[in-house]
Structure formats: C-alpha cells, structure tokens
Design goal:
The complex is a heterodimer of chains A (about 1100) and B (about 475).
Chain A (H helix, E strand, L loop, with lengths): L1 H12 L10 E10 L10 E4 L5 E3 L5 E7 L4 E5 L6 E4 L8 E3 L9 E4 L3 E4 L7 E5 L1 H4 L17 E5 L7 E5 L12 E4 L2 E3 L7 H4 L19 E7 L2 H4 L10 E6 L9 E13 L29 E3 L8 E3 L13 E7 L14 E4 L13 E13 L3 E13 L6 E14 L4 E15 L10 H7 L7 H11 L22 H7 L3 E16 L4 E20 L6 E3 L4 E3 L2 E23 L4 E22 L23 E20 L3 E12 L8 E11 L10 E15 L11 E2 L9 E2 L3 E2 L7 E14 L4 E13 L2 E5 L8 E5 L2 E18 L2 E18 L6 E7 L3 E6 L4 E9 L1 E2 L2 E2 L9 E8 L5 E11 L2 E11 L2 E4 H8 L39 E2 L13 E2 L22 E3 L2 E12 L2 H4 L5 E16 L18 E2 L6 E11 L1
Parallel strand pairs in A: 1-7, 13-16, 38-42, 53-59
Antiparallel strand pairs in A: 1-4, 2-3, 2-5, 5-6, 8-9, 10-15, 11-12, 13-14, 15-16, 17-22, 17-60, 18-19, 20-21, 22-23, 23-24, 24-25, 25-26, 26-27, 27-30, 28-29, 30-31, 31-32, 32-33, 33-34, 34-35, 35-39, 36-37, 39-40, 40-43, 41-42, 43-44, 44-51, 45-46, 46-47, 47-50, 48-49, 51-52, 52-57, 53-56, 54-55, ...
Chain B lengths: L1 H19 L1 H7 L11 H17 L8 H4 L3 E3 L15 H31 L3 H26 L1 E3 L13 E3 H18 L19 H18 L5 H14 L9 E3 L11 H7 L5 E3 L1 H10 L4 H4 L36 E4 L1 H13 L8 H15 L4 H9 L12 H12 L4 H11 L25 H4 L1 H10 L16
Antiparallel strand pairs in B: 1-5, 2-3, 4-6
Helix pairs in contact in B: 3-5, 5-6, 6-7, 6-8, 7-8, 8-9, 8-13, 13-14, 13-16, 14-16, 16-17
Chain lengths: ~1100, ~475
C-alpha cells in the first residue's frame, strides 16, 4: 500500500540531478526496504553538509554527482530510519532502509495536495483507503464514510439518488453551507444539490443528490478527512467546514499494461422495520359514525345495482382509515367496483383489509457496478485509464440511475527538472424516476400519511397496466375513479409523472512541477470542475392537480425543465522550499497564490395552465402563456496569496504556520480583503521518553482563524420582475434585501490532541478536543413582514461548537496468519448559538408542515425544533377536561443534534479471507415525524386500532357508567385512551379521550391540544452498517495470468440493531443541508447484499 | 536565489494588480438578471394587483374570510371554518400579503415616482395625481390591516432598515390614515393625467375614478369609526359626499381578470385549477337566501340534484356532491375582482343616515339602492328586483329587526364575493344569523385575526407591547378599536 503511494509521489517529485561537472564524481545506487527488499522511491539522498542531493525514482534508483571531497551520503525518508553511509571510494552505493518504529510513519495528503508525514501535523486528520468506499459500494460514496471517521456526522437520506448530509464537528454557519469541501487531486468539487427551497423545507420536490456523489469510488486511492480549521487554513473560506481530500489511483511503472477488472452486483430490499405497519381492523373514512356528512356506518349509501335497496359504498374521497370496522361478511362497493375494466365491476365484495398493502409496491433494487482500469508506465511516464459503469435500479417502479465514469491520470517527466501531470475525469449520470420528497406528491407521504387500508395495491397496478389511465382509489366522486381528489393511482405517478435528469461533468487538473534546485520547486496548476445538468419534471394530463411549475400554481399537468451549468476554475502557483537548516532543524516553506473563478448559471422554464397535447413534454405545449423563465447567472472570483512554514526540530517538535489573504468579489469592495492564519504545534514526546510499551506519543495543539466570504450578488438590491398581467408590467420590491455593508465572516478554532501507539504498535489511540467559534456570520435574516420584505442579509451572530473525538484501534490477534483489528471512533459535539444579528433571538432555518420549525435560537444548540409543546405541570403534561394533552404554542420541542456518534470497525484476516464489519451508531437527537402526525391522525399505524387499558378496542366509543355523572367512572366496555399526565388540579389524569374518529386522540389539526411534541422521537440508532467477506485467491491458483483476484460478498444496512423512531429510519430525511430533524414521506432503508469480483492482470 | 526573489516579486505584483482591479470585482458582483432600477408605474401596478389578490383570493392558507363571513363551508377539512388560524398560519400569510406584497410595492412606487418625476418629465399635476393615487391605495391597505388585527406597525413599517418595527394602535393609525386621505384628495386633480392606462389596472388612467374611490374610501373609514367618534365620522361623511362617492356600478374599484393563469381571478385556482372540492356554499347564506326567496341564490350557488338549494353545514364536514356548489359565475377565470363597490357605498349611506349624519334621501332609499346595485351587478332582472324589494321580509319598513339588523343582513348578502367586508359588517353591525361550528360557542366566532405567529419570534418585544395595546390578550374575542357595540 505504502509503496503505491510512494510511486505516486515519485511521479511528481522524482528528478534526476544535474549533469556531471569537473571535480565531481557520479554516485548511483538503489535504495530498498529492509523489510521486504522492495524498492523505495522518493528517498532523499543528500551529500552531508551540502545541498547537493537527489531523490530516488520509481525503482528506488538514484544518481547524483558529489564533489570529490564528499565523505558521507545521508538517506532520509519519512517512516524510515535515516542512514548515513560513508562514500569511501565507491561510485555505486546501495542502501537498505529500516522502518523507524518510533514513528507512525504514516504519510497523509494535506491541504493543496501536499504530502506530509502524519507525525509532523499539529492538527487532526483521518485517512481511509479505497476499501472503505469501494468494497461495499453505495450510490453516493459519502454514505460509505458513515461511522468510519470520528467527528464526522453523516445522514443518509434514503432518497433514491439523493443527497447525503455530511457535517464535520458541528454546524458552524446559521444559514450558509455546512458541508465540507471536497477536493479530488487538488480539484475543488462543487457539492451543491440545487434542490429547491420547497424541497429543503419538506414541502415537495425532488432530491437531486449532492454533486460530490459524482466521484467514482472505484478510482479513489485514499480519502483524508481534514477536520479542523487549522488543517484547512490553506483552502481558506470554503474549508471552514473541513475538507475531504481525495487522492485517486495513479499509474506506475511496470512491464506491459496492467488490467484491473471489477464487477459487482447487489440486490436490495426494503427493511420493513422502516416502513409503516398498518392496522388491519378498520377501513376508509374519517369516522365510523356518521356526522351527517355521509351515510351511517361510515359508508355512502346509494342503490348501485338498482334493486331498490340502498347499497354501501366506500368513501373513496377520504384518504384516511378511521372508517368502518372490517367485516368479511359485509359486501360493499369499492373504488374498483366502478371501473368497467375491473373484474370487480358492478360488484360489491367483502369489506376486509387489503391483501396487498403498499409494502408490495416496492421492488427489488438491483445495482451493477463494472469497471476496468488500465495502468502502465516506464521510466518517465505513467498512466492510469479507467472506465466504470454504475447502474442502479431503485426500489420504486420505474426508477433507474446509470453513471458512466471515464478517468485518466498521467504523469510525464518532460526533462530532468520538469514533470507534467494530468488528471481528467468525465462523468455522465442519467437518472429516471426520482421520487418527490417531503409532503406533496410523495408516494411515501401517501402511504404513510393518507391511505385507505382496504385498498389493494395489486389491483391498482392491474388497473393502471390494463387501462393506462389514472384509475385511482381516491376518486372525489366514487362513481368516477378517474377523477382523483388528492392522490393518483401510485403506478400512474411512477410511470406517467416521470422525472428525468442528466448531468455531464468534466473535471481535472493539469500541473507542471519544476524543480528549480534540490530544495526549491515551483508548481503551476490549473484545475477545472464543470458540469451541465438538465432536470425535467413531468405531470401527465389526468393527474390530480398539484403545485407545479414556476408559479407553483395548482396544475393538472405540466412540464418543467431546469438547465444548470456550474463551473469552477483554480489557477495555482506554488513555491515549495524544503531545506535542512541545520542537522536538527528542517524547514518546509510554501508560498503561493490562487485565483478562483466560480460560475453558476441556470434557467428554469415551465408550462402553465396544463398541457395541450397529452404526453408531449415541451414548453411550447403550454395551455396558458409560458411564465417568464427564472434565470440566474452569477460569477465569483477570489484572489488569494498564502504562505506556510513547517519547521521541524529533530523529529521531535514541529511548528506549522500558515497565513492567507483573500480578496473576494462577493464582498463589498471596501471590505473585500481579509487575512487569516493558523498556528499548529506537534510535539513527539516519545522521542524524549523511553517508556517500554509506548512506540509513539505525540501532542498536538493548534489555533486558527479562517475568514469567509459569501455567495455572489448579495450586496446590491434588485427588483423582481413578475409575469405581465395582460400588457401591464408588474415589478416588485425584492423579498430579500441585500446589504452593501457586509463584512467577512470569521471562524476561530482551537484544538488539542494526543496520539499514542503502543504494545508493538498494536494499540493506536487518538484523542482530540476542539472548540470553534464562528462569528460575524453572514445571515439571511428573516424579518417581520411589516418591514416590507422577508429577508435581509446581515452580519452578526455567533455559534460555538466544542467537542471530543476519540479513535482507538487494537490488533487483537496478530499472529499465525490470523489478524483481527478493532477500530472504534467516537465523537461528541456540543453546539450553542451564542447570539444572532441585531438582537434577534431566534432565526428560523426552515418552517415545516405540521406547525414545526427548525431554528437557531440564542442559548440553544443549533437547529432546535419548535412547535406546539406540552403544557407541563410538575413535570407532567397537562391534560384537558376532555382527556387530551394541552398544547402551548412555540415551544422548543426537540434538538436534532445527536449526543454522540461513533462506529466500530472489525477487520479479521485469515489466510486469504478477509472479513470486515462495521457497527455504526448515533445516540440522542430528536426527529419530528410528520408521517406519524398525519398517519396516526388518519388511523393508519397499528397502534391506532389496538386495545386500551380495559382490553377494549380503543376505537370503541367512550362510555360512562353514568352519562350524567363522570365521577362514577367508565363502563367496562368503554373505548378511548387515557393519556399520561395530570389534570389542571395536579391529579393524575383518568379522563378517557375518544379515539373513535380522526378528530380524537390522534388529531393533528388543533392548536390547543395534541401538541406537535407528541410526534418528536429519539433519533438514536445502532446499525450493522456494513459486512464484507473477501477471499483473495492464493498465487497457486492464480498462476501466471492473474496478479491478484478476489471474491467478495458484501452487505450494507443489513440490520438496524436498535432505533426508537417508529416505522422509519431515523437518518432518513430531506437530504443534505441545514434542514434536519424532520421526517415526512420518509423512504424506507434498503438492505443490500451483493457479490463482487476483482481481477488484476 | 535572485531568480526566486524575482518570481516572488512577480506574484506580489500580480496580486497588487488584481487588487487594483476593484472595478472588476464590483462589476462581477452586480445583479445580472434582475433590474436595479425600474419604472415606478410597474411597482404601482404590482402593489395594486397584490391588493386585489389579498382581498379576493380564497386560498385556505391566506384569505379565509369567505368562511368567516359564513358564505362558504368546507367539505373534508373544516379546520378554517372552525377558526383554526394556527395550522395554516393564516394571519401570517394575510399580513405578508398586505405589507410585503401590496404596501411595500406601493411605498416603493411612491419613492421612485418622486425620484424620477423630473426625468420622466411629469407635470406637477401629474406627479400629484400619481402620489395621491398611491396614497389612496396605501390608506386602503393599512385600514384593512387594522380592521383585521387591531394594532399593526405603521410609523415604523415598510422600512427594511428598521428590523423590528413597533406597532401603533388602531385608532392612531386610522387618524393618520384619514389625514393622509384628506391630503391625497386635496392633491388629486381629474383635469390632469395620472398613471398610464395600461399600468393603472383599476381605473385605466381615469383620475376621476380615483377621486370617487378616495371619497368612497373616506365614507368607509367614517362609517367604521362611527361608534368611536361620531362627530368626526359625521364630518367625514359630509365631506365624502360633497367630494363625490360612487354613484353606479361603473364606478366600482375593480380589476378585470383575464382568461388564463396567472391573470385569472384568484378564486379560480382554488375552485377550478386545483381540481379539489373543498368548498360549498354555507347553510348560513343559503338558508337566508331561501327564506327571502332571493333571486341572487341562482347566481351565488348551484342547486343540488333535486333542484333546490342546500347549504353545507357551516363549520362541519360536508359532502361536496350533496350540497350546493358555488355558483357558475365564480368558476369563471375572468370574474371581476373588487375592493370597494357601489352597493357598499349605498348601504353605508343608509347606515350614515340612521346614525344621524347629514345624508340626502332616506335610509330606505339608500338601502333599496344598495340591494338594487347588488342585484344589477349580478344580472338580476329589474322585475325581480322590484318584486324582491317589495317583500315584507326585505322592505326596509317591514323587515325584521332594528336598522343594524336590516342593513347588516342585506349588506352581508350583497357582499357575497367580498369575504373580508362581509365579516367586517357582521362585526360592525352585529346582525344575527351566524351559525356556531360544533363544540364552539357564539363568542368563539372571531372578532379579529390573532397576530401573526411569526411575529413572536421575529418582532417579539414589539408584539408584547401591541398585545398590551389591544387590551392584553392576543385572542379572537378581543375587538378592534372601532368594534364597540
């Protein structure tokens, strides 16, 4: 592993020294590892007490010309013991270097792709190798990081092709982006979702995934997570949330072309624990008894068959299940009794729970992942070319994502001093059938919140497939099931209202590295990340009208397309100096400049008033005039100069200093320049102490200040043009007021850490403490609408995050061919909103359906849930006289931030077998479930039809012993439930609340009872996240054809060992972004199990 | 070494060069797809259009006053009919429509009009007319907000520099509005031009129409404060009549909606485009129209299967198929929108007369004129009007109740498509006949909107003061300042 890394290094660094001169003699040789005799590239070979030297090439060879009087060569390499060799009269000196066990000898990639010895870092990083993301692959590789890095919180949304929220060390920005920066081989990658505000607020809309998911796990060599501000100070602004540095696989020198093949297929089925469990005792309707609203017994009554006797008809327009109790002996007319194509046409049939529930709506997910990589290289040039196809058919009908990745990495030594490297990636992703998230148009909201338990999903499928029409269970008028009132036939939704999107992305870098002298090199690099995307949303003629199109009007049909183009270019010029100042003191210095250009443009166009010709999805097919398209076009440029010095003293003490100044076009011209810096100290105390069991010990300390700018076009006010009213032109004052006086944001961070290794390096321990304060935040503050606007960009506010991170690894077994390593990660983050701009004490991050909002409230952790809460008396919820919990407005009802999270990874190897399994856990934190809020209200989950404390169906009527005297208690046959709590006088509640209709014990619509807090659940979970068993075929079997071959069985999300959120995965949600802690139309978790074959020729 | 130094200097120079390019930086950050300067007329048109939207829409998230006035009832989800204001944050949405969508654009239009008058070459008369017209619209919108909430931000409103505007009490705001209204009426001059025909969506550039609107609005404010300050109200009534109020439906403050979204009458979206079946006509109205054998019933509602009219039970669930639907006219996309109309003026004159103010003619004449105006507006035959007016249950002399009951009931019927005013007339004249939703009492019928829920978090300190201003309780029973008896 290390060797591959070293080869990569060499590709960039190796240079052959200058030609021969007089009074000099050439010395050459080869450097190998004493451990296995392999070549060591990248070793520094220096004539002692001079600056004359060379670096070994890919084969460990070096040549240098030493002065005649040279006596000693010094061979140094990180992780190896330094060797000093007397030259004597020799011209060929081969050396073998021994491992330096006092060092962790880990080489990590840090900011700006600078490779460092981990021991020298005064800040926290954690490195993962390829197997962390490629063994058990996910659609979005970020999901694979969950539980593997301490201090990193990952929330997998469960949305097909959807985005994943990743936050390192807590949310630092009130309104801004809190996701880390992704950098691939020095290319900063756009990671936006482009999801609409409505999507983020759980209203409706598609989750288009975060753009970093374009990174192909198959091409990843290593992932380094730089957690703190000090680690990332050189990336400045955007790295304040941490950096995920990805190094891709490179080519290496070898004979012929190497071929690697990888092929995997996985099958996924939904985890039923994460889907609603329906009650099977009552069917359609909002009340069993009539309100005079429709007929008695919960049915409409009409003489359907013309026999002069009234027949019972299911109230199809009511999307709830508080209706009549099922009775197999009762024949009633159902929705499909009115469909001529149905076998049930004109038939009444038994009133029973559906045989095929929405569970049968889900299909088996099938994921194919095939890749091929070619590698090769000679003395001066190396390359790697790879192609990967990822194809994922989702769990909903008509859902597929297909991704092609073509990737090239090459390096060439143009001459002895000049090396060129090129990385190019082409990614094309086509997706069909994303599903709406949140409340509107979401099939899960339908199944979890608004459903009739008597409706058979199989019949719906049959009806759709037979007729191709929108024949729904939810007809507004039961005579005509093609007039949906709230919900379409779900198969119609999937097959007709199809979303598609495609993204074409090209990213890469070209770098020239010039080694000016043996201690100074210059690198010029251009990186680019560009993509274009087309998103198309469709609503077929015949669908239930829903908010659609640019004006979000109620539209029965429509078409909307969004074209987005995102690009970022970076131009870097970086000088790197590497010098031994004295034998004990080394200096690595960096001086650089960066020009960054970010461009974004998009145009959204939609039809209006419906489509003229069905199934023709073109903007021109609009019934009404097409609304003005929504255009945006922004540019941002940031100019930075930076310097970094790393001083090392005797492998003992390292001081790392950075300074950077940025000028950003996004800030007002008067305040657009900001300076920031970091100071980090690493003290390898094990160099001084000689504790027998300790192999390594280090203390790290750092302090950093990072400045930040903001998004473009926030300093000048501009008006909003609305669609013309006939020929009248309508323009309005902006709903967000910009601010010409913005100042840069500032993040201050402190960190201390301890790293230990002991017991022959079998035990590794890393402990970190940090505190981060972000202030002068640039916040889009919501204002009283009486100001005439909704939002204004303001500076101010302060968020504090502090936390602990622990990582502990132990080799339980390390002999006889059996190894067993356990690595555990654990982290706790505590956030607090210290202040908000301009004396505001609450900032609403999102306002959700259900009267619940997510807020930054002064004195509270970031992102608390507010809504109607219990009215407590002596710590007990107060219950009103009718038996319902009393609700009071605007309470803090939950905190979505977990108390801690962590993971335990086990790796067991025996002979060719390798078993990995990861237990991933998150403890504490709250989530509000709109699925339960409405779902219970409409009588869907099984507990709404259970038995009460008297053993009676709780949906039976509440019966008093004496109707005139409640004090005589309840009859033995009484229904209803007793809520835990106290009456106004403090006595324990004994009042039985009715649960026999939707407005009773589970009602959602009241401001004064049934507080939203009742639907707040503990989001803790323990999951068996990943299991992988790999068998590496031994050489004997492989013969000469293959270099390596392995077979794997991989499983992900196999088992949720524990959770407290009913019927849903506590992680599931709206996707990446600051809107967390809210479940609406949650998608079930997909368990996947698959096989993978890897072959290397 | 020298070479390196040279390169370092080069970098610094390069950076310095970039810093010098602050023009470029500024240019990069300018809005590219939105205008920084716009004609004032476009802002005016938008503000006015929004004012019509605010008063005419029937979105259950925003304007629930067709329900509160008990003209309509709901079918499956009767939350709003039961006066749940919290679930959909109706007060927030109505308030936002008033301040952000209507008033701020009018306010901005006024500023830009003044700033650009010279550049546009407006004559003094033209400028005055435009400013006066904007002020009339602002007065109207502020009055509605006071009528809804009791106290609202006024002196500190509409200024994004004041992040947390304080509230003013309703009576003070009314006084100030009346002053502004008088100034506007003094400035307005029908001999000069106003806004262009195409941008003036209410009177198409006819300044005289605006003058009548201003006087009618003055009459409306006067009548509203009649219980609080009869003297001032009396004076205002005389002045308004002298200035010239609406004299026919042609004078109505109306907007002509178009056939296609988004320019349709906003109720079209809820009744037609949504494909939903949320509303039927309420029994409160249907029962009254049936009792009076009112010919407008055929316009306001559709008969049920047996040809009769049956209203949905107000405040309850109702079967859409079995109750009278809203009349066909209201399903038309181009149904006219109204914010003030002639029938209203005549009923107010009748009321003024009963209150002893100086009004020519009798209360009965104005009462009849009000009914006639309404019936004519909805296309009722003259003969039917005559028959109707002659009915003992309608005729002013013989109809049941005191003048408040008589005028109130008939004005309420006439205001069918003006939910907010229908509710306000009930608050002002306290006529009987409203139904009580299940498990509520008559006192639970709102006499005001509660303050926006978000004000508690966005403007908390001032909200607390405002609650004290209206008597200490932010509830629906608290009456706005003019709702005395």
């Amino acid at each position: 592993m290390r060797n591959i890394l070293l080869v990569c290094l060499t590709a960039v660094l190796s240079l052959v020294c200058t030609g021969l001169k007089a009074q000099e003699r050439a010395i050459s040789g080869r450097v190998t590892s004493s451990e296995d005799g392999s070549s060591l590239p990248g070793v520094n070979v220096v004539v002692k007490s001079t600056t004359i030297g060379a670096v070994t090439d890919a084969e460990g060879k070096y040549t240098l010309s030493a002065p005649d009087n040279a006596e000693t060569l010094v061979f140094t390499f990180i992780g190896m013991k330094t060797e000093e060799v007397a030259i004597g009269g020799r011209t060929a000196i081969d050396v073998s270097l021994a491992l330096d066990v006092t060092q962790l000898s880990e080489v990590v990639v840090t900011a700006l792709n600078i490779t460092r010895e981990k021991a020298s870092l005064g800040y926290s990083t954690q490195q993962l190798d390829n197997s962390a993301v490629s063994t058990a692959k996910e659609q979005n590789f970020i999901n694979s990081l969950s539980g593997k890095v301490s201090g990193v919180q990952i929330r997998t949304s469960n949305n097909f092709g959807g985005s994943t929220n990743m936050v390192i060390r807590g949310n630092k920005s009130v309104t801004g982006n809190n996701q880390p920066l992704f950098v691939v081989d020095g290319v900063p990658m756009d990671n936006s979702t482009g999801n609409t505000a409505n999507q983020r607020a759980g209203r409706m809309g598609y989750d288009y995934g975060n753009a970093a998911s374009d990174i192909n796990p198959e091409d990843i060599e290593t992932i380094n997570v730089l957690k703190g501000a000090a680690a990332s100070a050189l990336y400045g602004s955007r790295a304040a949330n941490g950096v995920v540095m990805i190094t891709t696989k490179k080519g290496k020198k070898r004979n012929g072309i190497g071929i690697s093949l990888s092929s995997g297929v996985t099958f996924g089925t939904i985890n039923k624990e994460t889907f609603i469990k329906y009650q099977d005792k009552y069917g359609a309707g909002y009340a069993r008894e009539s309100f005079g609203y429709y007929g008695p017994d919960g049915f409409f009554e009409e003489d359907i068959d013309g026999d002069g006797v009234l027949d019972k008809v299911v109230p199809t327009l009511e999307d709830g299940s508080y209706g009549a109790p099922f009775n197999p002996n009762l024949n009633v007319y159902h929705w499909d009794s009115f469909v001529p194509e149905s076998p049930n046409y004109n038939k009444a049939y038994p009133w029973v729970a559906a045989k095929h529930t929405p569970l049968d709506f889900f299909e088996t997910q099938v994921t194919w992942n095939n890749s091929i990589a070619l590698t090769g290289g000679n003395e001066g040039n190396t390359f790697r070319l790879s192609y990967t196809n990822f194809d994922n058919k989702g769990t909903l009908p008509n859902q597929d994502q297909d991704r092609h990745t073509l990737s090239f990495n090459g390096s060439s030594n143009i001459n002895k001093r000049l090396t060129a490297t090129v990385g190019l990636n082409f990614v094309k992703t086509n997706t069909v059938g994303r599903a709406s998230t949140g409340y509107g148009g979401n099939q899960m909201a339908n199944f979890r919140q608004w459903w009739e338990t008597n409706v058979d999903v199989q019949s719906l499928e049959d009806m759709y497939k037979k007729t191709g029409r929108n024949i729904t269970w939810n007809g507004g008028d039961y005579h005509d099931p093609t007039t949906p009132i709230f919900w379409d036939n779900p198969y119609w939704t999937r097959y007709k209202n199809v979303e598609t999107d495609e993204r074409t992305r090209v990213y890469g870098n070209v770098a020239l590295n010039y080694k000016a002298t043996d201690w100074l090199s210059v690198m010029g690099r251009v990186t680019a990340d560009t993509y274009t995307e087309l998103r198309e949303e469709r609503q077929a003629v015949g669908s239930v009208p829903a908010e659609f199109g640019i004006n979000l009007a109620s539209e029965g049909s429509g078409y909307q397309r969004t074209n987005r183009a995102v690009s970022e270019y970076n131009y870097d010029l970086i000088f790197t100096a590497n010098k031994e100042l004295t034998t004990d003191l080394s200096l690595t210095g960096i001086l650089g400049s960066n020009i960054r250009q970010e461009n974004f443009s998009s145009i959204i166009a939609s039809t209006q008033g419906g489509l003229v010709v069905p199934d023709l999805y073109a903007i021109s097919n609009s019934k009404s005039n097409v609304p003005s398209p929504v255009e945006s076009d922004t540019k941002k440029e940031v100019y930075g100069i930076f310097a970094n010095a790393n001083l090392g003293f005797k492998n003992l003490l390292y001081l790392d200093l950075t300074a950077r100044n940025d000028i950003s076009s996004a800030l007002p011209v008067n305040n657009n320049s900001y300076f920031y810096h970091s100071e980090a100290l690493s003290f390898v105390f094990s160099e001084l102490l000689d504790v027998p069991v300790m192999n390594f010990g280090k203390v790290r300390l750092n302090y950093a200040v990072v400045g930040n700018d903001t998004g473009p076009q926030r300093t000048t006010n501009a008006y909003t043009k609305n669609d013309n009213f006939g020929s009248t032109i309508l323009i309005s004052y902006p709903s967000t007021v910009n601010n010409p006086n913005l100042l840069p944001e500032q993040l201050t961070s402190y960190e201390a850490g301890l790293e230990l290794a002991g017991f022959d390096n079998r035990l590794k321990f890393d402990f970190g403490l940090y505190k981060q304060i972000s202030k002068d935040q640039i916040v889009q503050v919501e204002l009283s609408k009486a100001t005439g606007t909704s939002f204004k960009w303001l500076n101010g506010g302060e968020i504090e995050n502090k936390g602990v991170e622990v990582s502990l690894g132990y080799d339980i077994l390390k002999n006889n061919g059996v190894t067993w390593n356990i690595t555990a990660n654990w982290a706790k983050n505590i956030s607090n909103v210290n202040s908000l701009p301009e004396g505001i004490d609450n900032y609403q991050i999102n306002s959700f359906q259900g009267g619940v909002s997510l807020n930054a409230t002064v004195g509270q952790p970031y992102g608390v849930l507010r809504g109607t809460g219990y009215d407590y008396l002596n710590g007990q919820p107060k219950i009103n006289a009718a038996g319902f919990p009393i609700a009071i407005a605007d309470q803090v009802i939950g905190n979505p931030n977990p108390d801690w999270n962590g993971g335990i990874m086990n790796t067991v190897s025996y002979k060719g077998f390798n078993l990995n399994f990861l237990v991933d856990m998150s403890h504490g934190g709250d989530v509000f479930s709109l699925d339960m809020y409405y779902g219970q209200g409409t009588g869907l989950p099984e507990e709404t039809a259970g038995l009460n404390d008297l053993g009676n169906p709780l949906r039976d009527a509440v019966v008093l012993n004496d109707p005139n005297d409640p004090s005589k208690g309840y009859a033995e046959n009484s229904g209803g439930i007793i809520f835990d709590g106290v009456q106004a006088d403090g006595s324990v509640n004994t009042v039985r609340a009715p649960a026999d209709y939707y407005g009773g014990a589970y009602y959602w619509g009241s401001a004064t009872r049934q507080p939203a807090q009742m639907q707040v659940f503990d989001a803790s979970y323990v999951k068996l996240r990943e299991v992988a068993l790999t068998y590496n075929l031994p050489k004997v079997i492989l013969g000469n054809v293959f270099q390596a071959a392995s077979l794997s069985i991989v499983g992900r999300n196999l088992w949720i060992i524990s959770k407290n959120v009913p019927y849903a995965d506590p992680e599931s949600g709206l996707g990446a972004g600051n809107g967390q802690g809210y479940l609406s139309g949650s998608y079930p978790t997909v368990r996947t199990l698959g096989f993978k074959v890897d072959l290397t020729f | 070494m020298k070479k390196i130094m040279r390169k370092i200097v080069l970098i610094i120079f390069l950076t310095g060069f970039l810093v010098a390019c602050s023009d470029r930086l500024e240019e990069l950050n300018k809005p590219t797809k939105t205008a920084v300067e716009v004609p004032a007329e476009t802002l005016f048109a938008n503000g006015l259009n929004e004012l019509f939207f605010m008063m005419n829409n029937s979105d259950t998230n925003i304007n629930v006053f067709r329900l509160y006035a008990q003209y309509w009832a709901q079918t499956t989800y009767p939350d709003e009919s039961q006066y749940n204001m919290v679930g959909r944050r109706n007060p927030d949405n109505f308030w936002r429509g008033g301040y952000r969508d209507a008033l701020k654009d009018l306010d901005e239009a006024r500023k830009v009009t003044e700033q650009t008058a010279e550049a546009l070459g407006l004559s003094e008369g033209e400028l005055n007319n435009r400013l006066a017209i904007i002020d009339l619209c602002k007065v109207y919108a502020f009055a509605i907000l006071v009528d809804a909430f009791g106290a609202v931000p006024y002196t500190e409103a509409l200024d994004p520099e004041i992040l947390q505007p304080k509230y003013d009490d309703g009576a003070t705001i009314y006084n100030s509005l009346i002053t502004t209204l008088d100034q506007a009426l003094a400035m307005i001059n029908p001999a000069e031009a106003g806004f262009s025909e195409v941008q003036d969506v209410m009177y198409n550039g006819d300044v005289e129409g605006w003058q009548k609107f201003g006087n009618s609005l003055k009459l409306k404010l006067a009548i509203n404060i009649a219980d609080v300050d009869a003297t001032k109200a009396g004076t205002m009534v005389s002045q308004a009549i002298a200035g010239g109020v609406f004299t026919s439906n042609d004078d109505n403050a109306s907007i002509t909606y178009l056939g296609a979204f988004p320019n349709t009458n906003p109720i079209n979206e809820d009744l037609v485009q949504s494909g939903r079946a949320d509303f039927v006509v309420a029994n409160t109205l249907i029962d009254k129209l049936n009792a009076l054998d009112d010919p407008r019933i055929a316009v306001f509602a559709d008969p049920i299967e047996d040809g009769t009219y049956e209203g949905g039970i107000y405040g309850n669930n109702n079967t859409f198929a079995k109750k009278s639907h809203v009349g066909e006219a209201f399903y038309q996309p181009d149904l006219e929108g109204l914010i003030l109309d002639y029938e209203e003026v005549e009923f107010m004159l009748a009321e003024a007369k009963e209150r002893g103010f100086t009004v020519s003619g009798t209360a009965a004449e104005h009462y009849n004129a009000g009914i006639t105006a309404s019936m004519e507006y909805w296309g009722i035959d003259d003969a039917d009007i005559t028959t109707y007016l002659a009915k003992p249950s309608v005729a002013y002399a013989t109809a049941a109740g005191d003048w408040k009951q008589k005028i109130g009931t008939q004005q309420w019927i006439a205001l069918y498509n003006r939910g907010f005013e229908g509710w306000s007339v009930w608050r002002r004249l306290d006529f009987t006949g409203f139904n009580v939703p299940p498990s509520l009492t008559y006192d639970d019928i709102p006499r005001r909107f509660i303050f926006p829920i978000e004000e508690a978090t966005l403007n908390g300190t001032n909200l607390d003061e405002a609650i004290q201003m209206i008597g200490g309780h932010d509830d629906v029973q608290t009456r706005v300042f003019w709702d005395k008896n």
